[in-house]
Specification:
The protein is α/β, with parallel strands linked by helices. It is 34% helix and 17% strand. It has a 7-stranded mixed β-sheet with strand order 3-2-1-4-5-7-6, with helices on both faces. The model is unreliable at 1-26 (pLDDT under 50).
């Protein structure tokens, strides 16, 4: 099992219908603070004013936030930030907005991004679904990334999974036409669940020729834990969907 899987167990929140009262909404993340290193603590204290976004009550003006108009990638539950950092570094032409409730991971990412002088990053330490719902305008994003969300593999916990029909509708509404929803999981049954849920959304086109999985994208960083899992025979399933009109050709 990858470290992405382990960290996302505590970071990727689940969407419920917008009409559901807050106290009844099921969440799929558990806050586990962990121990902050001195460097992570310092990064949070010193760099938050530069990179951090408090929970927005209304849609953010993304061009104003980043100081330019550029493609915006939104990652839910970035954990320790290795994947997000790799893209921030490799794609200066894009802007990245990551949301993670695990403060050590946030501090580590801020420290690394500032170390290379990157300013194409903003982060929020909050429930990502709430940020997506309240802080992102309709059709504002070029890509949404979900790496190894908690599979909640026990049947009685399946309702806690992030990828559910209501969440799919929210995510689609925030993507531009032509925008991409990129996902990965190391849990076979959850991969099947994702395909079933997302293939049922008329505004999404599965980019897999076979209607299920795609090859690992070149920009999806493999962590050392994923590499170790591969050596042990563990599988990883990548999914990719494009936002289209309501009459998608399947």
């Amino acid at each position: 099992m990858s470290d992405d899987a382990a960290r996302a167990r505590a970071s990727a929140p689940e969407q419920a219908p917008e009409s559901t009262p807050e106290h009844r909404r099921i969440r799929s993340f558990v806050r586990r603070e962990g121990r902050l290193t001195s460097g992570q603590h310092r990064a949070l204290e010193e760099l938050w004013p530069l990179y951090g976004i408090e929970q927005p009550a209304q849609p953010l003006d993304l061009p104003a936030l980043f100081g330019r108009r550029a493609p915006v990638v939104f990652e839910i539950g970035f954990g320790m930030g290795d994947y997000l950092f790799s893209r921030v570094e490799a794609e200066p032409e894009c802007d990245f907005f990551g949301v993670e409730v695990h403060r050590p991971g946030v501090g580590r990412l801020l420290h690394r991004a500032d170390g290379i002088g990157r300013r194409n990053l903003r982060v929020a330490c909050h429930d990502a679904v709430e940020v997506l719902r309240h802080g992102i305008a309709a059709e504002a994003l070029d890509e949404i990334v979900i790496q190894f969300p908690d599979p909640w593999h026990k049947k009685r916990h399946n309702k806690r999974r992030l990828v559910q029909p209501a969440f799919a509708q929210l995510a689609v509404s925030r993507l531009k036409i032509g925008g991409r929803l990129s996902l990965a999981t190391d849990w076979a049954e959850y991969a099947e669940h994702m395909v079933s849920v997302l293939n049922a959304v008329p505004q999404l086109r599965n980019l897999s020729a076979s209607g299920d999985y795609v090859e690992r994208p070149a920009n999806r960083l493999k962590t050392k834990f994923e590499l170790r899992g591969e050596r042990l025979g563990h599988g990883v399933w990548d999914l990719a969907f494009e936002r289209v009109g309501s009459r998608a050709n399947r």
